AcrR family transcriptional regulator
Amino acid sequence: MPRNPILSASRIRTAALHIIDRDGLDGLSMRKLAAELGVQAASLYGHVDTKDDLLHEVAAEILAEVDVSGFAGGDWRHGLVSAARSYRAALAAHPNIVPFLAYGPAHREASLRRLDLVHGGLVSAGWSRREATMIAASLMYLVFGAALSSFSSGFSEDQALYRDRYPNLDKAHLLPSVARELDHDSFELALEAFVTGLAVRERAGAVD
């Protein structure tokens, strides 16, 4: 048995993500990560150069769950829907790292490959390069908007707060109890409206 725990890139990423899930993005430090792994901080640098590099590696592992295979069949609608749903699910599993991911793909090779497939799938379907870029960006706005906050859970459960001052929100106190279901259905509604709107635009000949 080795006297010191054996480190691996995978073990470091797993421990780092555990800290982020538990303590938040700001709660991760190389010193805390080393303590979590039972090693000295200097030992980590044989596997990762900086905390920022580590975050990109953790991000790449999380986003590996994003499914862009739907674009391969030439159906851009199916591609967008499957990508959006899997993207939201990946982010929902680790909400504390979402602010870091919201900065974009940066230099993450896997993220850039996925984006390349999305962009290529849209262009192959007839969208211009500019429109494809806008559609991909809009999809990210939709997904990250859903991941960064919960509209429903942001209400108070105190009925009196709304009943007298906001008569049209007299049932708002019930929203936190159904937040998970309502947030899911709201995302699906927004996704459907997004894809349907694009389809109308395509049929109208607005693709340029």
Q: What stands out?
A: The chain has two domains: 9-48, 68-203.
